[in-house]
């Protein structure tokens, strides 16, 4: 089947506006913590004890009122903090206005980031902060946008309920059952409104022209991607750890792939 999309510029524009909200308006500041600090000449063992009591893995090191570097709790031994402090590298630092999604991608290459406000380093973000609600809201929003786009594309691509050919009888029955429940609540919907993410996945992957337009190399790779996306979505919905089954890097790579899928959806 040749895909001749129905022009829906306003709808795509709305989706882009939502995406911009998630990608640009939620910044790294929403998950950052104030960076505690010590003096460069403080005794290292005393500072380590303080860090243990407050459960800090990293704190800043000050000299003449300016944070000039940082120390890690596990490094500290005899001597002063000057013996153990690490200077900031450009890759350690981000502006306080850095979008949260961009911050997430930076964490593929680091365990912590320090936040610059004006001309001072004032806050820190670690991997543990990626479990916070703003990150969960961001990721759930991105996944929801994927579902919204897939729904739009399916409605444009198929005539009537032609998408049913890609679903099992059981999935069709479940979709129809949900449809009847929602109709009973007097909701003005169509049957396709009741498709779940797994249904949209099977419908899209079952059509080679759609796979090509969305940049999905094969059915097997598409199924692997969507399976991971569903696991992440379920972890988000049930407040589970985001990296329960995968490493942080694998989760971040999944979101990078999701971003590419969204870009392909917007081009259609």
From TrEMBL:
This is CBS domain-containing protein. It comes from Neobacillus driksii.
